[in-house]
Amino acid sequence: MKKTFFTILFIASIHHSFSQNDEVKTVINTFFEGLHTADTTLINSVISKNILMQTTFINSKGESILRSSTKKNFFTTLLSKKEEDVWFEKLLSVEIKIDGNIASVWIPYEFYLNDIFSHCGANSFQLYYNNNNHWEIIYIIDTRRKKDCKSKL
Known about the structure:
- The protein is α+β, with helices and mostly antiparallel strands.
- Helices cover 33% and strands 41% of the residues.
- It contains three helices and seven strands, in the order ααββαβββββ.
- It has helices spanning 2-37, 40-44, 71-79, and strands spanning 47-58, 64-69, 87-91, 95-99, 102-113, 116-129, 135-143.
- The protein starts with a helix and ends in a 10-residue tail after the last strand.
């Protein structure tokens, strides 16, 4: 009886873990669908109203730069995208780590503008499982570079 109980508990915990991963993947996929289509309403459905956004890169002088942005600036950039421009962020892999009500997602990527390689790097997303029983993105940071990229379209 004890063995059966622990087996059921183990299977239930694995199922819960897989469903949590699926929920986090859905949030990330929704974010990128919104990015590719410049749909701020879609993006807004999966990000925190107080999201923190940063990017880091090495400038031409070899200095490490960290820039912060606001949700308003991010949305302004998306909405100012020319209708004929195609933004495509090719996700090279997705690694999800979850502990309780936080999740961390690591995604190396390549970014293309109108099918022309622009830059590569990695995205790091931090998510929080909120009191409405939904995962929401609370922090995004990415790296950007033009060299030492794994592959190109």
